[in-house]
Specification:
The protein has 146 residues and is α+β, with helices and mostly antiparallel strands. Helices cover 36% and strands 25% of the residues. The protein has helices at 22-30, 32-38, 47-57, 105-120, 135-143, and strands at residues 7-8, 12-16, 62-67, 72-83, 88-95, 125-127.
Amino acid sequence: MRYFRKITGERVYLSPINPDDAETYTKWLNDPDVGNLWGTYNKSYNLEVTREDLERRSKAYNFAIVRSEDDKLLGHIDLHDFYWINRLAWLGIFIGEPEHRGKGYGSEAIGLILSYGFDTLNLHSVTLSVRADNERAIACYQKAGF
């Protein structure tokens, strides 16, 4: 896969999403650990549906989270459902593989996209929703200032 360093941090960078990653995203979105928290587990994802979704998302503020040292795709982060009059957007994020969770990649990616949202897109507010039983995400969001 090919990634582009759109927004760079110390250990990760955010790249425009690549529809060629449809197989990886299909695996992640059908995984109960990701799907239940991302809100997609009640849907059926196959390669065609995922590719169409990634094609659609590639035209908006959706980014692949990529590890800088080896260009490894780690997850997804986006800003969506903009209310431009109020300068507000919603944040969504997931780290795909269990072995990459809890290592600070998500926290760094959130910091990068918040800087992009506030400094580049001139947002005034970013909000999100989280399940009450997702303690890891709640801790990450609180660390980021939510």
